[in-house]
Amino acid sequence: MRNRRRSCVRDRRRTQILTRDGFDLSRHPISLLSNGTLGWLQILNFTLTGIALIAFAVGVRRAIEGERSGKWGPRLLFVFGSGFVVGGLFRADPEHGFPIGTPDGPPAEVSWHGIVHGIGPAVAFTAFYIVCFVFAKRFWAEGSRVFAVVSGVVGAGLLVLLANPSTDGIGVRMAIGVAVAFAWTSALGVRLLRSTPVTAA
């Protein structure tokens, strides 16, 4: 019975975007899912994602400490992960009709936790844009030109995509941005893992 309940919770978390009444990805950023009765799922999602990214930053530091990008690369990845933790712990204000019953349009007054929530992801993705260029420089110097170019394109592309001040399609743009950022981060981990020599214990 417990396993069935846990499975149900996981399924709800994966399908919140499609199943939460009143949520429209073309109008609403994903962070609005932190509101309402199932808001704890998105809060947990953001927080655990941030913790995983922070752990990844620690691993990257250990793998390339003393090498090119060994100082700022891990630091920027740490900031990237910390932004997700902040985004999870400090909830976004309801707006644009979500959750149902919320007036359409932006909130009349932004709360203190809404302000902090907005700062967290902004700082996180600023760090991400920069870390892409930091590793692009590293891999270019190593002769890994393809990964260097991909890193630069990802950083510049997401900067253009997410720095757009327009709120039109903000949810879709953010979803694409997060997916691309995580794909690049995963590729970085694999790339560093393959290039790091294994030492005997």
Automatic annotation (TrEMBL):
Q: Which UniProt keywords apply?
A: Membrane, Transmembrane, Transmembrane helix
Alphabetical list of Pfam families matching this protein: DUF998
Q: Which residues cross the membrane?
A: 39-60, 72-90, 110-134, 146-164, 170-193
For the keyword Transmembrane helix, the answer is yes
Q: Any keyword Transmembrane?
A: yes
Q: What is the protein named?
A: DUF998 domain-containing protein
Q: Which organism encodes this protein?
A: Antrihabitans spumae
Q: What is the lineage of its organism?
A: Bacteria, Bacillati, Actinomycetota, Actinomycetes, Mycobacteriales
